[in-house]
Amino acid sequence: MKRLWFQLATTYTLLAVCAFGLLIMIMYGFNDYKDFDEILNPHNIEQQIVYDTLLFAEILRLPERTALQDKVLSDTRLKLVNLEESQKKGEIYRITNSSNPEIFTRVIEADGNMLVSDPENFPADIASVFAAQEPLSQTQATWLNEEGGPIWVDMPVESKEGEYLGRVQLLYVAKFDWWVQIGSVFRFLILALNWVIICSVPIGIACGIVAARYVTKQLQKMNEVTESWRQGHFEARIELPNDDVLTRHSQHLNDMAQDLEMYLNLKENLAVSDERNRVARELHDTVKQKLFALGLQLATAKAKPAVMDAAGEHVLEAETITREAQHDLMEIITQLRPAGTNGTSLYDRISMIAEDSKRRFGVEVEINYSDSIQFNATTEHHVLRIVQESLMNAVRHGKANHIVVTGKIYGKTASLTIADDGEGFDAKQKTGGFGITSMRDRVRDLPNGKFEISSAAGSGTTITLSWKNES
After folding, report:
1. Where are the beta strands (DSSP E) in 266-326?
2. At 416, which helix (H) or strand (E)?
3. What per-residue string of b and e applies to 178-210 under the rule 16 or more CB within 10 Å gives b?
4. Is the pLDDT reported for residue 337 higher than 50?
5. Chain-centroid distance, C-alpha 376
6. Backbone φ, ψ for residue 66 (5° rounding)
7. What SS3 class is residue 236?
8. pTM listed for this prediction
9. How many CA atoms lie within 13 A of 143 on its CB side?
10. Which of 110, 255, 291, 393 sits between 20 and 30 A of 370, alpha carbons compared?
11. Rounded to whole angstroms, how far apart are CA atoms 185 and 23?
């Protein structure tokens, strides 16, 4: 949080410095624009020339061009280039703050001959302006056009005794240039940088601290609520005022918490449902089948008179308990874990199931397979349960005497077929048993699993399943 405070305070300080600098630039620029219009006028230029009238009178008396003439013209040009005016508040505005003025001057003798000029050679466009103004000889400075622009000065020069000595002609060209103005403002800011910093730093730091305290306070609220979400308590919500950007983010977080809660509840319900289905399949395919086998053994014992005479009551009670256990097991939910293969192949384990069926029920089970490959544990678990359920259905419902289990491998696809010679049934008619539904569910859990069952009354039953081999 301290780092955030420092970053916000620094940011606001820099913003304050930039804001002060921009404000000064705008105010300085508009003031200079106004001062430029005030200082640049024909009367002001003419007054500057009047101050040098005596100097021009002296150089007109000289017979030829001398260093004095060049100095007078140079001083006049320098004074006009740095034209300045004192303002009411004691500030001084110089025209070079906003423009790069150009001055073209020449001195004409009384007989009309040009005595000296500055610069010595005029550009063609300036020379044409001078040529155009000569017939319009006038004794007052004026704009060359109504919108302002160049200023033309044509002033007679007389001696102290009133003798006409010649004329001074001057063209003053100055145009407001924003690039020059911006450079002037930057130079001013560099000079006034200390004052800008002194004024803006305290304001920036104060604003930064206030903003930092506000943001950290709101973030702390958000952290407290999100921490409760992390612990699983999604009923908490972020409460923030409705006048800042954080409110929108807080609303997004609140919506996300609501969606996350719904998602977790849905996922939990799906997980419970899947687990219940899995447990039901496990119980049906394991314990219930063993109870069914136990029931057959009890039925066999009951059919023997010697056994019934010795323990008839107990055998009947055992049969009742077995039936009740088979019914209750369908409603029990418990945690089961698929058994591992312990290095035994799928067909070896199918052979073990076949031997057990032959020993308990007297049914012949024939196993045929071309390749004995290793499947992953999950696949083997589902296939074994399907085989076990198929054999049990063939004995219990189909009264089969011979069952054939055939396994084949086609590239990356494996298939298994269980065919019996039992009584069969109408495969198109939906049955109410759980066995076939359990087998279909298990096949759906196999990669690219497919399940087919074909049967008809009196012609046995054939079950075919296939899946993508991902060993």
Report:
1. none
2. strand 413-420
3. eebbeebbeeebeeeeeebeeebbebbbebbee
4. no
5. 41
6. -135, 175
7. coil
8. 0.44
9. 9
10. 393
11. 11
CA distance linking residue 352 with residue 357, whole number of Å: 9
Tens digits of residue pLDDT in 155-186: 888 887 888 888 888 899 988 888 888 888 88
H helical segments located in 362-421:
377-396
In sign, the C-alpha dihedral spanning 223, 224, 230, 233 is: negative
Alpha helices in 119-192 (DSSP H): 124-133, 178-191
Integer Cα distance of 468 and 102 in angstroms: 92
Residue 456 tokens read as: 């008809």
148: alpha, beta or left? (left if phi > 0; alpha if psi -120 to 50): left
Distance in angstroms (rounded) separating the CA atoms of residues 363 and 389: 15
Q: Cβ distance 344 to 373 under 8 Å?
A: no
b/e code 399-419 from CB counts within 10 Å (16+ = b): ebeebbbbbeeeeeebebbbb
CATH number 2.60.300 given to 41-173:
no
CATH assignment of 341-471, given 3.30.1360.20, 2.170.16.10, 3.90.1200.10, 3.30.565.10?
A: 3.30.565.10
Query: And the tokens for 268?
Result: 């939990």
